[in-house]
Amino acid sequence: MSAGSRARAVAWIFFAATQTVAGAEIPLEERRSGYEFMSRDTRAMQDDDATNPGVFWVLDGEALWNRKAGAAGTACADCHGNARVSMKGVAARYPAWDAARRRPVNLEQRINMCRTERQKAAPLEHENRDLLALTAYVAHQSRGMPITIAPDKRTEPFLNAGRATFMRRQGQLNLACAQCHDERWGKKLAGTTIPQGHPTGYPLYRLEWQSLGSLQRRLRNCMIGIRAEPYPYGAMEFVELELYLMWRARGMKLETPAVRP
Amino acid sequence: MTSRRDFLVAAGSLAGGVALASAAGAARATPAAMQEAIRKVVGEAQIRRGRVRLEIPPLVDNGNAVPLTVSVESPMTQVDHVKAIHVFAEKNPLPNVLSAYFNARAGRARVVTRIRLADSQTVTAIAELSDGSFWTDTVDVVVTLSACLEEFV
Amino acid sequence: MARAVVKLPSTVKRGEIVEIRTLVQHAMETGFRRTQLGEVIPRNIIRTFVCAYNGKEIFRAGLHPAIAANPLLAFTTVATESGTITFTWTGDNGFSVTESATITVE
């Protein structure tokens, strides 16, 4: 094969790959939050802080924010002050690049890094009540703000890995995330409408859980649904997928704490 | 050979693994058990249809938190008011759902809550008035199962 | 300590019918669920809710396992006088939460 034809072949493969991806993605103006697929009653439950149970975790998070923890005896507020000011817009740009680890970290990981490195406290386990509360409180400060994931040279490989995971068929049902959430959104799976899968409200109160839960918990449910072995909590694959999903939802407004069926 | 029923049961368990597994072992209430629970509250009194308005969406996203409103036509005065509203579900593990007690100071006989429904079924609301009469309304609810659940047992 | 959120207008006209909305933090464990190892998770629910207006009971509810987690209860009362409205939830394992709100009647 000549250098020219090899280059053409490589270019064609690259083109085909980008075509597959670009062809499947939802046009920006057609994107809709899962909120819009819910019944009127479930939307009302999210809209009113007097009926949205997610508010309890936000209130718990506020108390934790101001409580001293760990060997250092410091509270989040000692460094970050008033979260209403300092945390405004923060969740909208997570997962974000961590220079020391040379990889993106999600909000839960960032909170745990603060705990271990600043507060000298034990990290909180995934789905731990306090971690959900702190994450919900921080993310709540960005409610109504647009998601602002702006990939750069450092984060792009991770975002692309997340996209590849989203597009890859997995599990015994041999389904890719994209087959439901890019190609078949708005159609029915069992009795429920398939949403587009935008992570605009995490951590969120899921009626199915009767509790607040993280995006990774939801992603694990999806993986179990397609009979794939879920990645462990905190796995790099999940952070990459979170980064891709947040980028895919760029410009959409955060709703934390959202309510979903 | 797999019968159609076996297949439906298997397919159902794919969609509702947790719901089925978690309710396993618990005897479901039956319409008869619900009638018994209702008789415990109203005794031998006649229950008439009317005056009560039970509002539940006919199709719900999830049976874990179904919005419910019961209101009763009543002047809510000392001499003529609603004393209680009772709610029953015929296919939950237990038929009793809620009992709300009022006096004339309520102004309106109305209560709002969120309930659990284990399955598609008929929900019954019964109002007990200060004159000793009982009134009822019923609603048929279809509960859809979530597609992607936590775990399979 | 479980949290409770109550919502009602702070200032109302005498004789007005006021809507009160209450939400309390509680899992309402039904007693019918099992762990993955098959052990029954014991029932742990709120059994009773009482609302009193300046010390006089205006609304009461008996709750069963069919009430959704983090129970919502909304009801009405006639605004008779300024004062305090108290809300008390009691349940299994000594569960008890009290919340109060003030109301000004003009």
- Please report which band the strand proportion of chain A falls in: under 5%, 5-15%, 15-25%, 25-35%, 35-45% or over 45%: 5-15%
Shape of chain A: globular
Major beta sheet summary of chain A: 3 strands, mixed
Q: Name the helix and strand elements of chain A from N-terminus to C-terminus, one letter apiece.
A: HHHHHEEHHHHEEEEHHE
CATH class of chain A: Mainly Alpha
Count of beta strands of chain C: 8
Q: Please tell me how large the radius of gyration of chain A is.
A: 20 Å
Number of domains of chain C: 1
Separation of termini of chain C?
35 Å
Share of helical residues of chain C: under 10%
Mean pLDDT across every amino acid position of chain A? 91
The CATH architecture assignment of chain A turns out to be Orthogonal Bundle
By CATH, the topology of chain C is Immunoglobulin-like
What fraction of the residues of chain C are assigned to beta strands by DSSP? over 45%
Gyration radius of chain C, rounded: 16 Å
Give the total of beta strands of chain A: 7
Largest sheet data of chain C: 5 strands, mixed
In which order are the strands of the major sheet of chain C placed? 2-8-7-4-5
Structural class of chain C: mainly beta
Structure in words:
The complex is a heterotrimer of chains A (261), B (153) and C (106). Chain A has helices at residues 3-24, 40-47, 54-65, 76-80, 83-86, 107-118, 129-140, 156-167, 177-181, 215-225, 236-248; strands spanning 96-98, 103-105, 188-189, 192-193, 204-206, 211-213, 259-260. Chain A is mostly helical. Chain A has a single domain (31-261), classed as Cytochrome Bc1 Complex, Chain D, domain 2. Chain A is globular and about 50 Å long. Chain B has one domain: Immunoglobulin-like. Chain B is built from 2 helices and 9 strands; from the N terminus they run H-H-E-E-E-E-E-E-E-E-E. Chain B is globular. The two termini of chain B are 24 Å apart. In chain C, a hairpin with a 4-residue loop joins strand 7 and strand 8 (96-105). Chain C is elongated. Chain C is an all-beta fold and 106 residues long. Chain C has a single domain (4-105), classed as Immunoglobulins (Immunoglobulin-like). The termini of chain C are far apart. Strand 7 (109-115) of chain B pairs antiparallel with strand 6 of chain C, so a sheet runs across the interface.
